[in-house]
Amino acid sequence: MPAGLDVLERLGARTLLDGRGCSPFVGIRYVQEDGSVAEGLLPAPGGLGVRRVALATALGERARAVGVELRERTVVQSHRRTGRGLELETSEGLVSARFLVAADGLSSPLRRAEGLEVEVTGPRRFGLRQHFKVVPWTPFVEVHFASGVEAYVTPAGSERVGLAFLWENGSLEHVSFEELLSRFPALAERLGSAEPDSKVRGAGPLERSARARVADRFALVGDAAGYVDAVTGEGLSLAFTCAEALGQLLPEALVKGAARETLLPYERTFQRAFRKYAWMARALLMLARRPRLRRPVVRGLGRSPWLFEHILGFAVK
């Protein structure tokens, strides 16, 4: 989304992504069961659909260029605080550090180890995704609705689209990628016999929560810090903007010992950004769960694209 793309530019990583691994998109298009459509343009600079492996490669290349030592395929097994920092027991041996940033995903073992895990109750959402070798047919991210499930189509390269399904546990009797695609006949016809370009991958339950993002010499970033749903497509943008905020305050915090109190500005920045993201995600989930409400709302947005664009501008800035 635009905010995350701006951070990639400031990091110097955007220019390391080419058309083979990413594709720009201009807005969001909702497609209902009857074919009715609502679409709105995103504010500048728009969005970027990118394969995660391409993004990781670009970020890794940029990190090495500025002097970061990357230890790939190294698993953190445990950590403990010492008098002046931390010690991490890893699959490749002991690592000493002054500060630990845990960006280890939805299930975040480090979040649990720090005692920051909060159990989430209520409906559980899950997702499946796969990429296909096909030229993107639209410069929009498409969200297709069906009973109990949504399909998300994202341009992800000059000859690639990503297709993801999201659904609520218990809303579908049988779940497989092929069965989910069969619920979207027009989308299945559009894909035709396109060759898969990745394996089917899944995630869930999606919603995760933490009691705090910071502790002494420790911070949670990205999905590990908290997550509601992929319905807004803002996960990476939220992660990038919050990581940038943490990076800006960390040098001064380290001078002061990086105690929890010195990291509270990051906690407040995260909460402000997360609050807006969570509000929008829950609003969209409410619509997705209530087709009788969603259908007239989407038709109304289709008749008033200016309103849709105003909502998008509020959500992603």
- Total DSSP helices: 9
* Biggest sheet descriptor: 8 strands, mixed
As a percent range, the share of helical residues equals: 25-40%
Structurally, how many domains make up the residues? 2
Radius of gyration: 20 Å
Poorly predicted runs of 5 or more residues: none
Give the CATH architecture of the largest domain. 3-Layer(bba) Sandwich
How do the helices and strands follow one another from N- to C-terminus?
Answer: HEEEEHEEEEHEEEEEHHEEEEEHHHH
CATH homologous superfamily placement of the largest domain = FAD/NAD(P)-binding domain
Strand content: 25-35%
Name of the CATH class of the largest domain: Alpha Beta
CA-based shape: globular
Question: Which structural class should the secondary elements be placed in?
Answer: alpha+beta
- Give a count of the beta strands, DSSP E runs of length 2 or more: 18
Mean of pLDDT: 95
CATH topology of the largest domain: FAD/NAD(P)-binding domain
Give the termini distance in whole angstroms: 9 Å
Protein name: Oxidoreductase
GO molecular function, one term: FAD binding
